[in-house]
């Protein structure tokens, strides 16, 4: 019986492997923005509304993960979602008339907090 199930189990396991960087989900507050592994979205950290110039959103996530891993994740993942990283060295990106800024901080308790700010890009 195990011989007949083994190919299906292997295939199922491989479908979850999409590369070295894999999101554990997406922010509920900001459409199509992946949540880095080890982070949990802060429910009351969500602000989302539309303006005449475009949408504005803010979100927050936190977790006990290395800052470098979070930065590496977003540098790799954002281009896959159509974001163009700016050369500022920070986690700033643009896409289709929008600008995304991601700020990563460490608290005194070594918890990582990530703040996401989405706004219309200047000049659009």
* Morphology: globular
Radius of gyration: 17 Å
**Helix/strand-derived class?**
alpha+beta
Spatial gap, N to C terminus:
61 Å
| Secondary structure tally, helices | 2
Strand content: 35-45%
Helix content range:
10-25%
Q: How many E strands?
A: 9
Total tally of structural domains: 1
- Largest pleated sheet: 7 strands, antiparallel
User: Element order, helices and strands?
Assistant: HEEEEEHEEEE
Mean pLDDT: 84
Low-confidence stretches: 5-21
What are the SSEs and their pairings?
Layout: H1 2-15, E1 25-26, E2 34-35, E3 40-41, E4 47-51, E5 54-63, H2 67-80, E6 84-85, E7 91-95, E8 98-106, E9 112-120
Antiparallel strand pairs: 1-2, 3-5, 4-5, 5-9, 6-7, 7-8, 8-9
3D structure, described in words:
By secondary structure, this protein is of the alpha+beta class. It has one domain. 23% of the residues lie in helices and 37% in strands. It has two helices and nine strands. About 14% of the residues have low confidence.
